[in-house]
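User: structure tokens for this one?
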Amino acid sequence: MASRLSQWGNDLYTGKRSYDIVGNRRRWYAISLVILVLSAGFLATRQLNPSIDFRGGAEFTVTGVEDTAQQPAIDAVASVDAEEIPRVSVVGGSAMRVQTGDLDDTQVREVVQALAAAYDVPENEVSSSFVGPTWGKDVTGKALRGLVIFLLLVSVVMTLYFRAWRMAAAALVALAHDLVITVGLYAGIGWEVSPATVIGFLTILGYSLYDTVVVFDKVRENTDKVTEQKRFTYAEMANLAVNQTLVRSINTSIVALLPVGAILFIGAFLLGAGTLRDIALALFIGMAVGTFSSIFIATPFEVTLRQREPAIAAHTERVLAARAQAAQAGGDATATGAPPVVVGAVMPGAHLGTRAQPKRRKPNRPSGRQS
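Assistant:
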């Protein structure tokens, strides 16, 4: 199995095997559009579920309980304030977390006593804390400012590094794609958005950008002076770059998703609600979506932008015209003057085999025999 995977990766890199990812970009655009609409629908209908850190209120933690049913906590809070609807969740296997709206000091003491009686635990097993709503607003404002500054820096750095604003634009489109889908699916699942979740959202932007930059770096290498040759189009050379980095993208994603998936499983099913679960879910969705966008969205969209350039569009027409002439002439390059094209070859190019190896120069031999 390992040898087959190694051979598969080698074939992708040399061009012997190739998947027409860029050529089928409309298909990937359609798939992404469907997921984006679905995510936007979740955001519009179910909306995000902010945690107490953002909406403010009182939080009670009952430890050492034997019965983790939620109804006793609901009844205990209702006995103090009939209009209050608490949010109750299990933390670990023997603790309950109860969140309410704003309560005064008297109501907090009464809720502590009611929860202790409801779960048959001493009052010192019930802790309480209060979070003001201004703290959540401050965190949200700083997160949004950080996001804007991050995107501006990304635009400038990528434009300077690749010397092409279209790559920066494609990277930003991929980042927006990843963020919208991640936030939308998170809203669809319905878990609370905590500060850890926000950290996860911002972290996936860096992960997605890193993966995209690696692919773009190979695209730049393959398409350097692409208009000076007449065999392959810009889109075909960019597609080769995606194929050459495909194995690396898959391996990196698997290595990253396995531990995050383990943390998500532990946080969701073993430890209950908590920071681990919140950040792990955001990271898991974001990394998976980021891998998809770096392969199927970023480079195809960059090719779409580049093909609008007059020079690239004219070069593509020349290559396709020469290829059509060669095909009509039965592949005889001498009859048309066009470069030879192997009919049915995997694009870009047929496998060159030993011809792809660098030529060795023969050593210079002395013309005469020395005495």
